[in-house]
Design a protein that fits this description.
11 helices; binds S-adenosylmethionine; Helicase, Ruva Protein, domain 3; 15% strand; seven-stranded mixed β-sheet; globular; alpha/beta; 274 residues
Length: 274
Amino acid sequence: MTGSERRPTDDAIQTVAAALTKSKRYATVAPDVVHRLAERALVSAGGNVTEGVKRTKRSLHEIYGAYLPGSAAQYGGMLRQLRAALDQGEDAVTEALRSAMSAHASSRERLPYLTEFYAQALAGVTPETVSDLACGLNPLAVRWMGLPAGCTYLASDIDARQMEFLDEALDLLGVPHRTRLHDLVDGPGESAEVTLLLKTVPCMERQQSGAGWALLEKVRSPTLIVTFPTKSLGQRSKGMFQTYSTAFEEYAADRTWRYERFEIPNELVYVIRR
Ligand SMILES: C[S@@+](CC[C@H](N)C(=O)[O-])C[C@H]1O[C@@H](n2cnc3c(N)ncnc32)[C@H](O)[C@@H]1O
């Protein structure tokens, strides 16, 4: 906020946040994220609450809603399908997980390449803990990751309903795990031997300049897998490979990290070791 931008009143922020709580689409987003976005929206709307509500919704769409189906994700149905599949055998479970992952644009795009993605990204590591930050529905790919039995999966994102769903799904799959609501603007949180930060740096940069790149520094993991989208959601390539590879490699050049790079369609992958 600059000197000329007045901090909105707490009342105005509460009013905008309350309106979002009533909206079907955003009611289960972490309250601290809604408050943060509401405050910024009110600043840019000059304190106008109606405009603040509109702008907060627009921001939430950009950082969260755009990845999900137009109508609410059917988490209850996905759990029923997974439960039934567990009685039917491996192929049915694979199909149920693939179908659930297709409800989030980021995991949907990765579906055809899951096996090669994880074989390369996790080659040679046998972690006891994996942290999946801003995870979306990627934790459902755990069976493709080849993790050692007993590895604990830590999953976090900003939607309470999505985290409850993942909690139940990972229970059903017998994967030791913890899920939680976590705003990455506050840093990565818990340490783990492997951290996944998939397609999320640009999304964090949109929320606070520097917040995405800073995560690479703040994550306390010997192995960090960070990826960047190389196609926009509308499938138009906009020189994103060039933009993100240059930005990442310039950032890494000032640091003492070892890293490998590879690509799958739609995604540029760096495996950083330190
Ligand atoms: C591009 S998607 C990537 C999802 C997942 N990592 C994947 O690649 O399958 C970005 C994710 O960031 C989450 N997100 C957005 N802002 C966040 C924040 N401030 N803190 C934590 N997660 C956030 C969104 O809900 C969304 O699931």
